[in-house]
Amino acid sequence: MTLPISIRPEAEAEIERAHTWYEDRRPGLGQEFLLALDAVLLRAAETPDTFPLIARRTHRAVLRRFPYLVFFVVEQERLVVTALFHGHRDPEQWADRVREHSRSLARSPVLVP
Q: Residue 19 to residues 6, 26, 73, 92, 105: CA-CA distances in angstroms?
């Protein structure tokens, strides 16, 4: 079963910035970036457990061709993209985001049908 995908606003902004950067470098390259992102998100939505856990519930996926990391969690039967980071950025930046997201998950109630 393929999980529905939800993208947090912070991750959406990061995706838009990366798309714009690539598109400014060469027309069409931004679209290629989005296609690579779509491909990795589809794989993650189909088989999330095949992607390594890097924190309590946070998985990491690597885009092909573009040096970006996608971080996601599976919660309430959906895949939630929490961050997109350039692979050459300071790892502490994405580690902080993962820790922040893990703390918010710990405080949020679990909904049981």
A: 18, 11, 23, 23, 29
* 73 DSSP β-pair partners: 80
pTM of this prediction?
A: 0.80
How far is the C-alpha of 99 from the C-alpha of 19, rounded, in Å? 26
Which residues pair with residue 68 across a beta bridge? Answer: 86
Strands of 1-98, DSSP E: 5-7, 59-62, 68-75, 78-86
- The answer, yes or no, to whether residue 108 has pLDDT greater than 50, is no
Show the domains of the chain with their CATH numbers: 5-105 (3.30.2310.20)
Segment 27-67, tens digit of pLDDT: 999 999 999 999 999 999 999 999 999 888 999 999 999 99
**What are the φ and ψ backbone dihedral angles of 21, each rounded to 5 degrees?**
-60, -50
Q: Dig out the tokens for 24 from the structure.
A: 């400014």
- Phi first, then psi: give them for residue 95, nearest 5 degrees: -65, -40
Measured distance CA(9)–CA(84) in Å, rounded:
11
